[in-house]
Amino acid sequence: MDALAAWDDRSAGQWLDAAERFERMAQRFHDHPQLNASFKALARDALARSSPARGNPVKQLPECDWSGRRRTPVPPTSADLSYFRLRGIQEQTAALEARDVRVRRVHFEMADRYRALAQGAEAGCKTELRLAS
Fold first, then answer.
1. 82 and 55 share a domain?
2. Do residues 14 and 56 share a domain?
3. With CB atoms counted within 10 Å of each terminal CB, which end of the chain scores lower, N or C?
4. What residues contact residue 77 under an 8 Å CB cut-off, 6+ apart?
5. Low-confidence ranges of the chain (pLDDT < 50)
6. pLDDT digit string (tens) for 77-113?
7. Residue 62's pLDDT is what?
């Protein structure tokens, strides 16, 4: 089997366990049709992946040299800057309102990351000031 095709090395037993967990989650959300359907779909997928005989599709990527391909960075816009600032404030607020220390820590970390993104966007954002008459 190709190294690219073996990106997920879970055993059949692990896939069956995952299918069972997803099915239990679907049952928990019987009052929420969208969540119920999503977890049922995950359970069906995990069940299919548990055995090659059940139709485990092996997805292969075409042979390609990916090392030379790079995405060209898109310069941030003022909308990005506003979004990052808003999300930083929202995460900070959520951290202050969280009762669980672990949840608070995660929200503070997210707030720090959004602040860093905002600072990076601010440095790369070219806003033009124009005189209005």
1. no
2. yes
3. C
4. 125
5. 1-5, 54-56
6. 888 888 999 999 999 999 999 999 999 999 999 999 9
7. 55
Q: Is 131 within the bounds of a domain?
A: no
To 10 degrees, the CA torsion angle through 39, 41, 47, 51? -140
Q: Which two tokens stand for residue 55?
A: 């139709």
Residue 27 lies in a domain: yes
Say how many domains are in the chain. Answer: 2
Q: Which pLDDT score is estimated for 37?
A: 87
Q: Are 40 and 23 in contact (CB under 8 A)?
A: yes
Q: Is 70 exposed, middle or buried (0-12, 13-18, 19+ CB in 10 A)?
A: exposed
Q: DSSP characters for 1-32?
A: --TTTTS----HHHHHHHHHHHHHHHHHTTT-
| pTM of the full structure | 0.42
**Residue 107 maps to a domain:** yes
Q: Which domain holds residue 22?
A: 1-62
How far, in Å, CA of 19 to CA of 80, rounded?
A: 39
The pLDDT assigned to 57 comes to 52
